[in-house]
Specification:
Elements: H1 8-20, H2 24-41, H3 51-64, H4 67-78
Helix pairs in contact: 1-2, 2-3, 3-4
Length: about 80
Amino acid sequence: MKFYPDDPAVLHELGVINYLNREYQNALAFFQRALIKVEAIDQVDLLPYWEPLFNNMGHVCRKLKYIEIYELAQKKEHFFI
């Protein structure tokens, strides 16, 4: 993390690791940080690359019972279809 603290791919993977360890709050924090970085990129051609981020955010929100965020993640996925 000390080498690439602002890399959204690294933040996403840290979220996945936390999710697999059932540390859902930490996972969501990493996914949200990654999303902020992705939104700052502002390149439409890169959006399909980030589809797993939205999918994983939906999974962690479902585990945490954050229905509103889960529904937002589902809506974002429709942009990639």
